[in-house]
Amino acid sequence: MINSEERLPFMRFRGVTGIISALLVIASIVSLSVNKLNFGLDFTGGTLLEIGFQEPADLNRVRSSLESEGFGDAVVQNYGTQEDILIRLEPRTDVKAEELGSNILEALRAEFDKTVEMRRIEFVGPNVGDEFIEQGGLAMLTALICILLYIAMRFEWRLAVGAVAALAHDVILTLGLFSFLQLEFDLTVLAALLAVIGYSINDTVVVCDRIRETFRKFAKLTPVQTVNRALTDTLSRTLVTSITTILVLLTLFFLGGPLIHGFATALLFGVVIGTYSSIYIASTVALAFGVSREDLMPPEVEKEGADQDPLQ
Amino acid sequence: MLNKYPLWKNLLVIFVVLVAALYALPNIYGEDPAVQISADRNATIDASTMDRVRNTLNSVGIEPKSVSLENEQLLVRLNSDNEQLKARETILDSLGDNYIVALNLAPATPEWLKSLGAQPMKLGLDLRGGVHFLMEIDMDEAMSKIVDGMKDTVRAELREERIRYSAVRVDDTAVEVELRNDEAYQQAAQYLDNRYQGYVLAEDEENRILRLEMSEQKIVETRDYAVDQNITIMRNRVNELGVAEPVIQRQGSNRIVVELPGVQDTARAKEILGATATLEFRMVDTENDVRDAQNGRVPFGSELLPMRDGPQQLLKEDVILTGDHIVNAGVGYDEYNRPQVNITLDGAGGNKMSLATKDNVGKPMATVFIEYEATEERDPEGNLQFTKSAEVINVATVQSRLGSSFRITGVGANEAQNLALLLRAGALIAPIQIVEERTVGPSLGQQNIDSGTQAIFWGFVLVLAFMVVYYKKFGLVANGALATNLILIIGVMSMIPGATLTLPGMAGIVLTVGMAVDANVLIFERIREEIKAKRSPQQAIHHGYDSALSTIADANVTTLIAALILFAIGNGPIKGFAITLAIGIITSMFTAIVGTRAIVNSVWGGKRLSKLSI
């Protein structure tokens, strides 16, 4: 993709990208605290029904029939196709929550006809929802800590901090996007976020690995030159892997059906951000902490690159 | 630099791929619509049942694909969904109530594969359609019920032993016994200490009070028992519903997961599963006046309860019998064709009933129906709070000393039906509440399968095309590895008994397809670099694989960490994603490193090359 004889001066722009990233992170945090996340049923608790009609659904008629049955608070919208609708209800106290779904279905069958098809009913008790939030947050933290420990063990703490900073950056920005656009945040999106962590760390590790190798191989380069060289050498790999991943995510987004939409959106955005952060964030942070050749020299000579001559 | 794999390594690769392919094979045979017949405890299934089923089906013009007897269950495979529904009805009519007839999809795996233990992947509820319930048990109520029962038992035992007490009462989680005199106190202390192993007996000699409390271990045992009993009862109730391959599992300390594949009538399922009713038989207090009690003077040891369709009743607090002694209950009709519920008790229940009614012939006995309804409140520990609503549903005069078999009359036909169903399924010791439900209709399940398969297919095609364009012949090698990887994932998923394919799981496969080429990209980029550095093609291949290895390992271990954490915290569908992701990472490392090397070595290895198609 690029001629690796030339070294691209990535780090020349690290001030600009640093500022942009910082601004985006701040914007995301602001959006998260102002707009909050549009938590889906998994986290808020409540009842959700997906109903299939034979012909395009008449939303107003559905609404009025639900209203007359005492479900005036129901949110009714189209879902995926013209024929499918989604009905959401907040947790309520007057009806046994687990019976709510069937009550609504009955009401609709009475109003329309027997061909009203139940496609999906979900009910989550409010406390179960709270637990999901707790578990999700915990999982995210555990993942970050475990990965930090692994990288610190395998590399060096400055690179580890850089890698985890890149991860946190990706997670915060993805969350920020979901908050800013008020996209629904449910369990599959949470799973996607963890997959983003997995993908982004994969990318970052490859870059860090090369930075370490370049430091060891070329004693004369400054840290900035070293990082530039490592980034250039891994650029085509970074791009190729991102392209193949984005290709499959696009098929998921367009063909995977509405249930997978949020998942694919989070991953698509996360992969793009993750690719950027593995180039700029991890290395910038490591440089800011003053990573140097001495930090990365092995206590004994490791196999990789040791049997090769310097390639300059 | 020859780049030749030893024979064993090539054989290993071939062997692994063949085994995986073999176990992935059952997935392409699809499933037959089937009807699964099992017997409850009053019936058996044998060769004669098989003939009967076959004849019944033939008589309505259905020719089953096969009828087989497996694990005391009959499996009837049919040719179409329509035949399946009709077959179920016909069989149900012909065999009667003692059999459970469930709709099922039976994998059409050929015999020779089955004999190797090969099975298709299990599909999650989001792909198959069905209901998932998470139920929570009210432990506090269970404990208080047990302590209550203990109080009654202690009182009866002291009476039997002729130890004079002035009071036996429940205090929080303990039973307190107050004795009349010192002699009785000594006797009681000795008796209770011997009798109640696993309990802590606190003695207060001054006030002649003995306090009997469960030990920590006993409490844990009791809680486990409450959960186990609920699971058993759920299983019975699920059998009533006629579901093939239900999952009923404990989750955490006080929750139960119930999964019912293929169930569409969720309202009925919930009614039966969620009904937390129990039954108590108690004597009516005939010595005191109901009107006095209604005016606020409820006599000690009695309780005023409402009655369904009738006036309030004054009942003795002592419970003769609770619902958990009920073995069987069914609807019958008396000589005037009025509905009645026939009840059979277990041995202990029969004895209790016999003892209690011995001196009470001619007196009225009440049946109390107790329902627990969850409130929205929780106690500080986050446990659901339940309200108990007790209602007298029937008062009948004891006609004679009752044994282990008796009947309740005077109930309406519908109520008799419902009551019998609940009684038959057993009554719950602890109230239970649905805290999460996920139901997927069959058409959505199929749609999910279709869109998942499409996404996998097109994602796969796009990546294959890209790799060939970008890496030419080496791209073909990577594509071979990618295809093999897909087979390996499906093979491993089919081999692991607990692994379930869900829609997010299919997304995980798609993602793996995109990410699995990464290892090959790393290797190929290295080879390109080495070639640019003027190494010979053979050396370039060798160094390319070698130096990319540790990078690939590091990158994949970290992704694996994320997948494992996802598996640990996720619920059903998310777990499915974590499983396919984790399996995909491991298999892709194998195919991308060992697999492609085997191909590269056999194509290019050992030859004098001037350039590489990469």
Automatic annotation (TrEMBL), chain A:
<keyword id="KW-0812">Transmembrane</keyword>
<keyword id="KW-0653">Protein transport</keyword>
<feature type="transmembrane region" description="Helical">
    <location>
        <begin position="187"/>
        <end position="208"/>
    </location>
</feature>
<comment type="function">
    <text>Part of the Sec protein translocase complex. Interacts with the SecYEG preprotein conducting channel. SecDF uses the proton motive force (PMF) to complete protein translocation after the ATP-dependent function of SecA.</text>
</comment>
<dbReference type="InterPro" id="IPR055344">
    <property type="entry name" value="SecD_SecF_C_bact"/>
</dbReference>
<feature type="transmembrane region" description="Helical">
    <location>
        <begin position="266"/>
        <end position="289"/>
    </location>
</feature>
<dbReference type="GO" id="GO:0006605">
    <property type="term" value="P:protein targeting"/>
</dbReference>
<keyword id="KW-0811">Translocation</keyword>
<keyword id="KW-1133">Transmembrane helix</keyword>
<dbReference type="InterPro" id="IPR005665">
    <property type="entry name" value="SecF_bac"/>
</dbReference>
<dbReference type="GO" id="GO:0065002">
    <property type="term" value="P:intracellular protein transmembrane transport"/>
</dbReference>
<dbReference type="Pfam" id="PF07549">
    <property type="entry name" value="Sec_GG"/>
</dbReference>
<dbReference type="GO" id="GO:0005886">
    <property type="term" value="C:plasma membrane"/>
</dbReference>
<keyword id="KW-0472">Membrane</keyword>
<dbReference type="GO" id="GO:0043952">
    <property type="term" value="P:protein transport by the Sec complex"/>
</dbReference>
<keyword id="KW-1003">Cell membrane</keyword>
<feature type="transmembrane region" description="Helical">
    <location>
        <begin position="12"/>
        <end position="34"/>
    </location>
</feature>
<keyword id="KW-0813">Transport</keyword>
<comment type="similarity">
    <text>Belongs to the SecD/SecF family. SecF subfamily.</text>
</comment>
<feature type="transmembrane region" description="Helical">
    <location>
        <begin position="239"/>
        <end position="260"/>
    </location>
</feature>
<dbReference type="Pfam" id="PF02355">
    <property type="entry name" value="SecD_SecF_C"/>
</dbReference>
<dbReference type="GO" id="GO:0015450">
    <property type="term" value="F:protein-transporting ATPase activity"/>
</dbReference>
UniProtKB/TrEMBL annotation, chain B:
<dbReference type="InterPro" id="IPR048631">
    <property type="entry name" value="SecD_1st"/>
</dbReference>
<feature type="domain" description="SecDF P1 head subdomain">
    <location>
        <begin position="303"/>
        <end position="430"/>
    </location>
</feature>
<feature type="transmembrane region" description="Helical">
    <location>
        <begin position="576"/>
        <end position="600"/>
    </location>
</feature>
<dbReference type="Pfam" id="PF02355">
    <property type="entry name" value="SecD_SecF_C"/>
</dbReference>
<feature type="domain" description="SecD export protein N-terminal TM">
    <location>
        <begin position="2"/>
        <end position="103"/>
    </location>
</feature>
<dbReference type="InterPro" id="IPR027398">
    <property type="entry name" value="SecD-TM"/>
</dbReference>
<keyword id="KW-0812">Transmembrane</keyword>
<dbReference type="Pfam" id="PF21760">
    <property type="entry name" value="SecD_1st"/>
</dbReference>
<dbReference type="InterPro" id="IPR005791">
    <property type="entry name" value="SecD"/>
</dbReference>
<feature type="transmembrane region" description="Helical">
    <location>
        <begin position="476"/>
        <end position="496"/>
    </location>
</feature>
<keyword id="KW-1003">Cell membrane</keyword>
<dbReference type="GO" id="GO:0015450">
    <property type="term" value="F:protein-transporting ATPase activity"/>
</dbReference>
<dbReference type="InterPro" id="IPR055344">
    <property type="entry name" value="SecD_SecF_C_bact"/>
</dbReference>
<keyword id="KW-0472">Membrane</keyword>
<dbReference type="GO" id="GO:0065002">
    <property type="term" value="P:intracellular protein transmembrane transport"/>
</dbReference>
<keyword id="KW-1133">Transmembrane helix</keyword>
<protein>
    <recommendedName>
        <fullName>Protein translocase subunit SecD</fullName>
    </recommendedName>
</protein>
<keyword id="KW-0813">Transport</keyword>
<keyword id="KW-0811">Translocation</keyword>
<dbReference type="Pfam" id="PF22599">
    <property type="entry name" value="SecDF_P1_head"/>
</dbReference>
<dbReference type="InterPro" id="IPR022813">
    <property type="entry name" value="SecD/SecF_arch_bac"/>
</dbReference>
<feature type="domain" description="Protein export membrane protein SecD/SecF C-terminal">
    <location>
        <begin position="432"/>
        <end position="598"/>
    </location>
</feature>
